[in-house]
Specification:
The structure holds 2 protein chains of 2 kinds. Chain A has one domain: Transmembrane di-heme cytochromes, Chain C (Fumarate Reductase Cytochrome B subunit). Chain A is built from 8 helices and 2 strands. A two-stranded antiparallel ribbon of chain A has the order 1-2. In chain A, helix 1 packs antiparallel against helix 2, helix 1 packs across helix 6 and helix 4 runs antiparallel to helix 6. By secondary structure, chain B is of the alpha+beta class. Helices cover 25% and strands 13% of the residues of chain B. Chain B contains 16 helices and 15 strands. In chain B, the strands form 4 sheets. In chain B, strands 5, 6, 7, 8, 9, 11, 13, 14 and 15 form a 9-stranded mixed sheet that branches. Classes of the chains: A mainly alpha, B alpha+beta. Chains A and B meet through helix 2 and helix 6 of A and helix 12 and helix 16 of B.
Chain lengths: 205, 522
């Protein structure tokens, strides 16, 4: 049995879309700062990149708070259960109209592969970008803070760019995978309206 | 009022100059020299005037005797090189050695025509060349530093005053033998500068004179390109008690260590530990409408016209060939070159064997510095490249006796061997008799013609591939530098990801229609 319920709460949707916009702005301006192309001009790209980064810091501060107060952080607890089934589904089943091996519920709204991917983003990609980015922002205090003997700007920038490429790949795959729901737009609709079809909790419990 | 000023200013530059002269020059002094009996006489010569000056200004000549302006000599305290105009060579007119009677037109003295000049003579100090306010005083080349005999010395002496852009500029704007030739940031456009040309010297604005920054103490003028201050970390020190003891001829003497004050200025202030102020704030050299000379090839000199006079050729008003001097090229409103510079300058002196640098030039001066010596800043320089005579057997640069009317002078007989034999004899240096030409280069620090902040060099001009700092090494510049393999790998994987999802999507579309066709009921 499935029913239509609110999967993504209002704050969650706001967070998701604000974060999506900020990440796209950060990637676009960031690769310009990196020298990949000219769009805004270096100076404006730096300003945009810096301001977007601080907005993201504020947003994520609220989001972390939200995750812990609502218990939603549990959505990211990794599991290897059914991961093989998910991989098999994306490689084969999806082409043969097989049934999706995962049933979305309100308590488990991410499939096992999503859990792993989002966890990887939260514990690997984001910290790498954030840590290197913040150090980069405070480059001129390195000497005063005694960091200059441990850090090299070039290496820091290297790691920041590695993170950026990983984030870009995440974005591409993520945008594609939202089309793999029950219908092509069902995931997208859920993230916009909040409403989606889920299995009844009873079954899962 | 401001409108009125700028109206006059735009109508005619010299009219405002006249206005300023009439209004202020005498007003700042407590003495009207025109009323001194000692000066109300017909002077026969420059030294006669000086004798009158030093009756009251008893220490002035003694002070001058200690300066570079008088001795043309400077002992570099750091590398112990004995430099100064008297000792070094350059790749413009090469050297005043053996040519003093000509070159001493820019000496603050009278009578320096050869080695016998008396550097202890007080009356040989030329007060007027710096303190003239009339504009009438002038010293022609070849006259051993004496003024033109048409100058009314009594009139000039009665109208002395503070130094001005005109008096300093009379020599410093014309270095290398013509207006703007040598420096690239000094030419007569600065006499009445507008704000765009020099934000401090703006004649209707801040109206700085040279001595506002190059403040002298006991006639010794601050600021030196033999020991320039490439890095200043002391910060602001004008208005301090010991103001007069400090060298104020650098930006931070007034602007302090965090010169950018606007709200988003911290990032700009962060640049000051790597970049000289001049690098951003002097966007281009020769910005005043006067071209600066960039190359000088002595090897082509000697061509005469049908009347036996030196051939001359001009392009766009600039002398590009002169039979006495060779071929020249110019630049106007052009980007300078950029180097790491820590203030230490080593000169190639006459008795040293020549050594070519990587580009195949003899570096006549070497601006030292690097990204990691902790003392260097990135500086703009004008690099002047030349071709000049040398002694291929001895492996040294040479002193040509160019000026004068005698048979040895190159400008008289166009015979290099004779000219160099006489020049090297005069300099006390050996000469093999063989003459060839060699490429040389010199760097000149760019520090004048400071643009208003809004015209400073933009971020993207350095933070980009092939930007202004493309040759600066030892530093990571965001936007310029990237690890190439990371970019290739990164974009490669991004592309593969894209291809992957596109293929996956296509597969789903195809399989969707395929299954529809094979199982139409579903």
């Amino acid at each position: 049995m499935s029913e239509r319920v609110i999967i993504f709460k209002r704050f969650e949707r706001f967070w998701h879309w604000a974060q999506a916009a900020l990440i796209i702005v950060l990637l676009t301006s960031g690769f310009e700062v990196h020298g990949s192309y000219t769009l805004l001009g270096f100076e404006r790209a730096v300003t945009v990149h810096t301001n977007a980064a601080w907005l993201l810091v504020i947003l994520v501060a609220f989001t972390i708070f939200w995750h812990f107060t609502t218990g939603e952080w549990k959505q990211y607890i990794p599991t290897l259960k059914k991961v093989d089934a998910m991989i098999k589904y994306y490689l084969l089943g999806i082409f043969t109209n097989a049934t999706h091996p995962f049933r979305t519920t309100v308590l488990k709204k991410h499939n096992p592969l999503q859990r792993l991917a989002y966890l990887f983003m939260w514990v690997m990609i984001s910290p790498m970008i954030w840590l290197t980015g913040l150090l980069y922002l405070f480059y001129d205090y390195w000497q005063a803070w005694g960091l200059d003997q441990y850090l090299v700007l070039e290496e820091l920038a290297f790691l920041h760019v590695v993170g950026a490429f990983m984030m870009l790949m995440f974005l591409i795959v993520h945008v594609y995978l939202i089309t793999t729901g029950h219908t092509v737009f069902s995931h997208m609709k859920a993230m916009i309206t909040g409403w989606g079809e889920v299995e009844q909790e009873v079954e899962e419990l | 009022m401001k409108l009125f000023f700028s109206f006059i200013f735009h109508m005619h530059r010299t009219s405002i100059l006249f206005f300023l002269f009439a209004g202020f020059v005498h007003a700042t002094s407590t003495a009207d020299h025109g009323r001194f009996k000692e000066l109300q006489v017909d002077f026969d010569s420059g030294p006669e005037v000086t004798k009158a000056c030093i009756k009251c200004h008893t220490e002035a000549a003694k002070q001058i005797h200690k300066t570079k302006h008088w001795n043309w000599e400077f002992l570099n305290p750091d590398n112990k090189q004995r430099v100064g105009k008297r000792n070094i060579l350059n790749n413009f007119c090469i050297t005043p050695k053996s040519n003093f009677a000509y070159c001493s037109a820019c000496h603050v003295g009278y009578g320096w025509k050869d080695e016998s000049f008396d550097f202890t003579s007080e009356e040989n100090v030329d007060c007027l060349v710096c303190h003239d306010t009339t504009g009438d005083y002038s010293k022609p080349p070849g006259n051993a530093g004496f003024p033109k005999n048409t100058v009314d010395l009594s009139y000039v002496a009665q109208n002395v005053g503070k130094t001005s852009r005109d008096t300093c500029g009379a020599c410093h704007f014309y270095g290398g033998g013509g207006n703007g030739v040598k420096h690239g940031d000094l030419d007569d456009s600065l006499v009445v500068a507008d704000r765009e040309l020099d934000v401090h010297m703006d004649a209707v604005g801040a109206d700085f004179t040279c001595s506002t920054c190059h403040k002298s103490v006991e006639h010794d003028v601050a600021g030196s390109r033999y020991v320039p201050q490439a890095t200043d970390t002391e910060g602001r020190h004008i208005h301090k008690r010991d103001y007069n003891e400090e060298n104020n001829a650098h930006c931070r003497a007034c602007h302090d260590n965090e010169p950018h004050k606007k709200a988003d200025a911290s990032r700009l202030n962060q640049h000051v530990d790597k970049i000289a102020c001049q690098t951003c704030h002097i966007p281009r050299i020769a910005r005043g409408g006067v071209a600066t000379r960039m190359t000088w090839d002595w090897s082509t000199a000697g061509k005469l016209n049908e009347n036996g006079e030196p051939l001359q050729e001009r392009v766009d008003g600039n002398l590009v060939y002169h039979g006495k001097r060779g071929s020249f090229t110019y630049a106007e409103d052009a980007h300078p070159e950029y180097i790491w510079f820590n203030g230490s300058v080593r000169f190639h002196l006459l008795d040293e064997k020549i050594v070519l640098n990587e580009e195949g030039y003899v570096p006549i001066n070497d601006f030292e510095g690097s990204a990691d010596d902790g003392k260097s800043r990135i500086w703009p320089v004008k690099v002047f490249r030349g071709v000049q005579p040398y002694d291929p057997e001895m492996g040294t640069l040479v002193v040509p006796h160019t000026t004068g009317l005698n048979e040895d002078a190159y400008w008289k007989t166009f015979d290099w061997k004779k000219a160099i034999t006489a020049g090297m004899l005069s300099a006390g240096q050996p000469f093999s008799g063989k003459v060839d030409f060699i490429k040389t280069q010199m760097s000149w620090p760019i520090t004048h013609m400071v643009a208003p902040a809004e015209n400073a060099v933009g971020c993207n001009e350095c933070h980009s591939k092939n930007g202004r700092l493309s040759t600066i090494d030892g530093i990571y510049i965001p936007g310029r530098d990237a690890v190439e393999w990371l970019d290739i790998a990164g974009w490669g994987i991004v592309l593969l990801t894209l291809i992957g999802v596109v293929l996956h999507g296509l597969g789903r579309i195809i399989s969707f229609y395929w299954s529809k066709r094979s199982c139409p009921k579903e």
